[in-house]
Amino acid sequence: MTKKLTLAAFLMGVVLILLTGSILMKNDFLHVYPPVAPKREQPGDPMDAPQDTLAQQMEGMDLLVVVNKRYPLAEEYEPVGLRQANVAVVDGNVMLIDAAASALEEMFAAASADGVSLVCSAGYRSKQRQEALYQSYVDAVDAAYADEVCARPRYSEHETGLAVDLSKEMDEGFVDTVEGQWLAEHAWEHGFVLRYPQGKEEVTGFPFTPGHYRYVGKEAAQAIVEKELTMEEYLDIEGGEYASMEEHE
Ligand SMILES: [Zn+2]
Fold this sequence. Notes:
Layout: H1 2-26, H2 51-58, E1 82-84, E2 95-97, H3 98-113, H4 127-140, H5 143-149, E3 163-165, H6 178-186, E4 192-194, H7 201-204, E5 212-215, H8 218-226, H9 231-235
Helix pairs in contact: 4-5
Bound molecules: zinc ion.
């Protein structure tokens, strides 16, 4: 009798497993699709992102990807759809993701119409380029100095193809120039935000950098500027210093 019961229970178990499996297969739960673009684990629910941004994410352009000293880019992350931005540059070419390049061109034209001549000194930087840049500061002084003036490779927003430097010197004095003031007033209208504002150093992990702007799209830019937020605050993502900062002390 006990043997029969055990057998019956076992058979029921097998039937249940088979049923669950077939339902999962039918609904394609077991099928693993390749991701549209390399994506990182980040706190914060992507469903909270505005709908247009979500649509762009589906196309492989994660316009709200956050890079800071807590969240580096994945080793294999490469921006999709880079192209040259047709704007005045300090030297060489400035490459950006297509949407950011178009927005930058639009912003330069609007500035020009207001009699303001913007110039771009940096856009996309590859991981190798950021590595070489960081290492040059390490070699010149030391790692502590390099961390003060330059992001470590994979920790620079320039590696996303969504960030630009819009001042030649990249010092705080830019905020008082005609160009710096025009940008502070109008950049958001074109989808760009001042990424490292004054007074938010502990949130962003970076010093006030009035020449560094980040493309986030018009909707997010408006919300960020209206509420005087950083990207970290807007997306509820942790920022601040490198977790391993003591390594260099
Ligand atoms: Zn920059």
